[in-house]
Amino acid sequence: MIYMRGQHRDYDDWADAHGCRGWAYKDVLPVFRRQEANTRISDAYHGTQGKLVVDDPCAAHPVSRQIIAAAVSAGVPETDDFNGAQQTGAGWYQVTASGGQRQSAAHCFLKPELDRENLTVLTGHLACRLRIENRRAVAVEARDTAGAHVTIRARREIVLAAGSFHSPKLLMLSGIGPRDELHRQGIDVVHEADEVGRNYQDHVGAPVTRHLVGATGLHGADRGLRALKHGIDYVAFRRGLLTSNLLQAGACVDTDGAGRPDVQFNFAPFAPGAPGQAPLGFHALQIHPMTMRPKSRGRLGLRSKDPNDAPKFYSDVLAHEDDMDTLRRGVRLARKMCEQPELKDLIAEEVWPGPDISSKAGSNRLDDAIRAHARTIFHPAGTCRMGPTPSAVVDLELRVNGIEGLRVADCSVMPALVSGNTNAPTLIIADRAADFIPVSG
Questions:
Q1: CA distance 344 to 57
Q2: pLDDT tier at 441, thresholds 50, 70, 90
């Protein structure tokens, strides 16, 4: 629910470095503004009349407030808008939540239109593949909740919006993808497209974690009498913890001196365990540095030609040395924040990386610790890359190259991951797709 668009340069790079003309910041800013119903900010960067409600976080947590203050003491400027003239700073995020209601795409855009005569929503269906005839997408083959086969024919176009894992998976199941990958699974090649499933990228982080003094965090808030109180507060008064997205604050910082933030920090009055491990059994906070523009690239393929099987992917996160170096700088700055007087009486010993791990330059133990604790930020992108040449998966109006009547409209089309959360950018990709589809005569 964090509302973060990314940097102006991200979109200018799409246009200039990746050839995606028409996707520069000047092109996408009007779309962000027309979507937005911001409850606090009305200026050249924000809209107030759109359908997507963007608000300040509810139930601001005092631990998060102290971390913001510590970040400012560590040299990070304070900000009240990560989506304005510049992204740099530490402060409260704005969120797609308001009045105790998550302002999701479904809530803001889909539900108000459910009564339209030309809209049918089928839930519980599994999209299996696209039917391609004479190089045109003509139908979606699916299974319903009982497992029966369903064919949904398209009069004009099919828009694929299954995300960075399943959009390329569906293309490959339909015979659109790398020849060797399709042959490996016994799938006939309809259109050879080597880029399908390539260019996989994701933000990755390694959270510096400290014990909290006393019961000042969120540990145990989902159990016993505390959980009951939170439930009553929400149901009866629409207030309290259950109105919060929990990750309420953070920072975007230029740690390498290149002139634009390269590390995003999430501030939280709680801390999960190591990847694959149970949550921590005590109160803790985390200052979580994350790569903003990762250079590592992975790929996605098929496990089989059974639509029920999840795709397989090779993430290769931290394969590029620059990404590892970015996290080293992020860990060092997070530790510096923890040393500030604003947190002196709030935190105790370090949980991760741990007091025996040095973060000085050249520390192999820090590298080992980062690799052991590195985790996805759940922002996969790029696997149906947009570009100006036929080798790209989709063209600049999101049409699948080589196939008529088919578009992709999700964050898989990003040529490069944006510097921040992917919710808001994905919504404007969808909005622009609607603009590109010709109005029926």
A1: 25
A2: low
Catalytic residue annotation: 379
CA atoms lying within 13 Å on the CB side of residue 9: 12
**Cβ of 29: how many Cβ atoms within 10 Å?**
19
Residue 88 burial class via C-beta count within 10 angstroms: exposed 0-12, middle 13-18, buried 19 and up: middle
Helix H or strand E encompassing 232: helix 224-237
What phi and psi values does residue 306 have, to the nearest 5 degrees?
Answer: -80, 120
Chain-wide mean pLDDT for the chain?
96
291 neighbors 377 (Cβ within 8 angstroms)? no
CATH code, 208: 3.30.410.40
The C-alpha atoms of residue 122 and residue 152 are separated, in whole angstroms, by: 11
pLDDT of amino acid 114: 97
Does residue 97 lie in a domain region? no
Residue 227 placed within a domain: yes
What is the torsional sign of CA 105, 248, 322, 24? positive
Domain-located, residue 433: no
SS3 153: strand
Q: Total structural domains in the chain? A: 1
d(C-alpha 348, C-alpha 130), whole Å: 56
Q: What is the mean pLDDT of residues 411-429?
A: 98
Domain of 213, in residue numbers: 58-92+204-291+318-373
In the chain, DSSP finds a helix count (H) and a strand count (E) of: 10, 21
Q: Is residue 107 part of a domain?
A: no
